[in-house]
Amino acid sequence: MFSYNNYKEIIQIIKKSGKYSSFHEVKSSSLEEKRREEFILMRHDVEFSVERAFKLAKLENDNDFCSHYFFQLTNNAYNFLSRKNIDMINEMINFGHKVGLHFHLNDLTEIEDIKKQIVKEIQIMSEMLNFKIDSFSIHRPTVGVLRANIKLPGIINAYEDRFFSFTENVKENPPEILYIADSKHRWNYGLEPDKATLMNNKRIQILTHPYSWTPEGYDNLNNFRTLIAEKQDILIETLDAETKHFKEIRDAL
Ligand SMILES: [Zn+2]
Fold first, then answer.
1. How far is the CA of 124 from the centre of ligand 1 (A)?
2. Could you say which architecture CATH assigns to the domain 4-24+31-217?
3. Which terminal residue of the chain has fewer beta carbons within 10 Å of its beta carbon, N or C?
4. What is the model's pTM?
5. pLDDT (tens digit, 9 = 90+) per residue, 130-148?
6. Residues 6+ apart with CB under 8 A from 182
């Protein structure tokens, strides 16, 4: 599970379904239109590793598929604004992928404050990338944030009601738009993007986290082991590049 071969199979099914769409292509202004519309959206929230997101984007590109990557600006494990990451993100945009903000609430709870901060972070990202960012998804959204159905002029919210059905009780009130997510390194609620599920549902949003996906398709333990090793390599590269005295002791580590 969560191997590149596994991911390629999912892409093939989505392409065959004829329902693949970007967030920007979903129209549906009225409820009736919305119910007639069919789509499968592919969203990636980037939590820890721009490198793994870049590799997944490359895999998609090799398979003639474009999707939507959401990055955090205030992440503690990667720096969106580093030159290396900006270069990778620009290359992803050149591949044809869409890039948006994966907004970390950082303890904000007031909807008006959240809206202002989203606009501010989108502006910073756009300026640094030299590319207009016009979409966001919220990292670990609270019920209050989902219920608020945040809409900002000219900006797409991956959790707004065109793309996501917020329901307080999934059993009593099943969502009209199917939501399939790989959170916690497993397919949540037992829902997988397999052929039957993708063919038999009219409107679907799939969320994956690129750090969960590797060529090998590791289990949870080995996925984290390899992720930590990759992050360590990046720190060592940085220490090497930015100091002289690291080299003196590097072999003794
Ligand atoms: Zn997240």
1. 19
2. Alpha-Beta Barrel (3.20)
3. C
4. 0.95
5. 999 999 999 999 999 999 9
6. 2, 188, 207, 208, 209, 212
